[in-house]
Amino acid sequence: xxxxxxxxxxxSRREILKGSLYTAAGLALAGRCAQTAAVTxxxxxxxxxxxxxxxxWMWGGPSHIDTFxxxxxxxxxxCGPLNKPIKTNVDGIMIGQLLPKLAKQADKYSIIRSMTxxxxxxxxxxxxxxxxxKAGGRDVFPCVGAVVSLFKxxxxxxxxxxxxxxxxxxPQGRFSExxxxxxxxxxxxxxxxxxxxxxxxxxxxxxxxxxxxxxARRELLHKLDxxxxxxKDSPQIKxxxxxxxxxxxxxxxxxxxxxxxxxxxxxxxxxxxxxxFGQACLMARRLVEKGVPYVTINYTGWDTHKxxxxxxxxxxxxxxxxxxxxxxxxxxxxxxxxxxxxxxGEFGRGPKIQWDPPWNGGRSHYGRxxxxxxxxxxxxxxxxxxxxxxxxxxxxxRPVYPWDLIGSMYELLGIDPKAKLPHxxxxxxxxxxxxxxxxxxxxxxxxxx
Amino acid sequence: xxxxxxxxxxxxxxxxSAAIPTASAKIDRAVLAGLGELKIPTSKVCTDAVFLRRVxxxxxxxxxxxxxxxxxxxxxxxDKRSExxxxxxxxxxxxxxxxxxxxxxxxxxxxxxxxxxPNAAQAYHHWIRSGIKTNKxxxxxxxEILTSSGSNFRVPQVNFYRALQSKEPEAFAQAVALxxxxxxxxxxxxxxxxxxxxxxxxxxxxxxxxWKEEVVYFDSLKAARNAASGxxxxxxxxxxxxxxxxxxxxxxxxxxxxxxxxxxxxxxxxIANRAxxxxxxxxxxxxxxxxxxxxxxxxxxxxxxxxxxxxxSKYDMRHLFRIILNSKTYQRSAVPASKHPQAEALFAHYPLxxxxxxxLIDALxxxxxxxxxxxxxxxxxFTFIPExxxxxxxxxxxxxxxxxxxxxxPPRDTGLESERNNKPNAAQRxxxxxxxxxxxxxxxxxxxxxxxxxxxGKPGNAVSTLYLTILSRYPTADELKIIRDYAQxxxxxxxxxxxxxxxxxGKIKDKGAGVGVRGRTALIDLTWALINSSEFLYRH
Lengths: 449, 540
Prior knowledge:
Chain A is an alpha/beta fold. Chain A is 32% helix and 13% strand. In chain A, strand 2 (86-87) and strand 3 form a beta hairpin. In chain A, helix 11 runs parallel beside helix 12 (308-332). Chain B has helices at 2-37, 48-60, 66-74, 80-89, 92-105, 118-133, 138-146, 159-162, 169-181, 190-199, 220-228, 251-260, 265-280, 300-312, 317-325, 357-368, 402-406, 426-434, 436-443, 446-452, 462-471, 477-489, 520-531, 534-537; strands spanning 150-151, 203-207, 214-218, 353-354, 375-376, 399-400, 538-539. Classes of the chains: A alpha/beta (449), B mainly alpha (540).
């Protein structure tokens, strides 16, 4: 029907996956470690330390060995040209050589080097890392942003006009973010490009239409809306007109001004980097400053099967500038204590370089072990959690599963990890899974909380 | 002899067509009886213009063109409503729209978490659509699905058993109960579900050398094992009667015999109730896929009536649609005649419903003569989607667009009717009111520009063309005045000639003539306002 490219010389992405899919060994091994390292979570007094989350989603899976888990002694087949990691401002912590600015901020963040789930498919791995649930079964779970906007959004007293869950700039699209919570908990994706001269947020900014015309149009709409007038008591019409009021608060009110980056100092904007990612980081800071509980920056381009090192040299400096400036800026404004910054992707990348064609120096998907960075909002800085073997191929100690990290963030946000999620069929579902659900549990990240 | 045959045919035909008004009248009587008990008044029968738009949206998920609207409104035939219903059955969009509906319920989706994979999703959709095009009897449609064995590419309906996140027998039983009995087995007593699951515990899956081909089959080894262990004896139908299974017969055939038997109320109750829900906006049992003892039908006699009609017509779904669509009940106005809390649940008026995501974007494309880009986020194998493809015709739930996501298209994860989310929210409103997507559609539309063009000989029918194109009706005198005033108040958008005389002599056709609105800005704003009106956004 439409699968004619399979016989092509160029392998499809699925063929690549098939070769390395479901490395169950990773999970099994990690599981064994889990038994020794399991920390039983204390019944936490759920006082919120943090108000917001900025999630830097490294779409495609960033290489851990080239960023936060360097192994300079592993040899050329592992390090390639990036074999000179650098010292950070914390004794004993080294990171990749293309992240010099972040190296100066290591006291502000902690690196989890022993993240694992063992899955090498983008969709399934993204789902696991973002929802803290394994794929399969009858339910599609909501991801962290949807859960946070449920517990810390409007029902919890968030009063901002900006939606409580913002995505800069495009939805991730691998699965539905809101899961069974329904589209009310979907993120608001801004569209536009904050790196451009004007950040035109889709729906809020309408270049060429003056405020006067906006107002006149709205009046015309009301005058012509005969059915809406005739049926103004209907719940459907009431809901529609409520949504219209909210929309105009953003179009014509002050709320939309948060997206205007031109009021920021030029110097600061340049420190963030005059590119999409850098300005998205600045945008994220402005949003949490306004109290938005959850902001995701979807940072694409990390699925580096080919031209891996060229891409690292091109992209890591942008990551370095944007993320390090975000940390210092949040810190300078006293926001870092109440804002979790969560950096990571769906998996790491194969530490052993694929030199052969068609890759010619690329890295494959790698779910057996990967790195995640957390900062602020109650997470301590300057620590490393867990470690990997000499070639960054397996977890050596303290495996951390996605649900361990997510449960830890919930605790810091004052969300009970055992809180019930509203399920459309009334099933009892908790915010995080437990051993009873068949999950291996690495335990809360109490060492950095 | 020849004439005898012909006259017999004609007689049968006229008998059949006479059966429609009778059955529709029975529906109306049953509804009125239900309302009468609570003394709830009914709303008036709707106008032709409202009926036209409603029946297009409900039957083919498409709004009428301006030409279609003009023709229908000018038609003097007393039977023009039934005639229109018959015409719409023949439209390709009818097949697209209902294939889309069934693809939601049967979870036709290539990617996560259903993972049918693209080829199988395409084949499955094609099979469903062909069944609708040929009006396959509903019992046959269900039996073919339930008893299917073979390759997911060659016997596409086997994908029913693949389109589930879990391959446990309980999951099959739950899906069958939900889809074809309208009931949620997770609310049953556990032994009842376990008893039904036995029937689906002999299904096997095997791969072939073909990429992503999978064969679904009756696994006789499993059956023999289950027979030996005594497990087969525990098989129970959902109504509690034991299912006599043997290891040599595919138990799904035994189940299909039980399910599709004319004596089994579960089978017709589900589909009759769903058909009513789809057309009438609310199930007789509501939610339509949550039938259980403690969720009774609002009007049980009405439901039984529909079930009998379906059996008598040999499971002809179009017959069921036809008798509902021709009823006065279906054709009532959406404006309530009373504030009685039960009025809507007992069908005293037609309920307001926001347009489905797919229908909404297709309507916007039709109005503006523009197209959309649809794609799958996992683009391999590359699926070519023609530029003018309408979203109701998309075969695969993994192929979509940000607009469809935003407006609550079902993700096709569970097969529940409630997956479709038509509740308005601020993000949707922002998009329609102010996004570059909709703005560009309106402002760059060649089709609208042509409609807006001011020609000397035919002054000012731009406004009526816009109304016919967007709302499928002519503007009223009040509306014309509002628009004229607006145009005059606009800087740069002045109406240089305001002819208020109506030139038409009783001809409905030229009602909008004489409005000298020629400011392009004003007409763009009018288009924008009509697209954002409740009349456009809601089925009414």
